[in-house]
Give the backbone structure.
Amino acid sequence: MDQTLNYMNILKKTLQEAVVNQPRLQAIKLYPVCDTESGHFLVLATGWDKQRWMDTILFHARLVGQQIFIEEDNFEESLTQALIASGVKKEDITTHTPVMNNVRNSA
């Protein structure tokens, strides 16, 4: 199987599982957005957080060839770690923040 297609499938599955496994303490809904044409994979959070409307990106990754660029990973249990556990090679993941680089290097 083509590695790019494999990574695309891993990204989609990881995002879908992350959305299903999130506790529903508030009226916030999580939505996986997987655009395979452009290579963007996101998890959106939308809803009321107590008295405040929330509409934010919890996770954003871009798949470019065989490289995954993590733009945001705001999950308590890192989705970057979940990607690595699902078979993505550490060296195929690039992150843009020192905190995320530490996550990648410790995996």
In short: The longest strand covers residues 52-64. The chain is about 30% helix and 40% strand. The beta strands are 27-35, 40-49, 52-64, 67-73, 93-95.
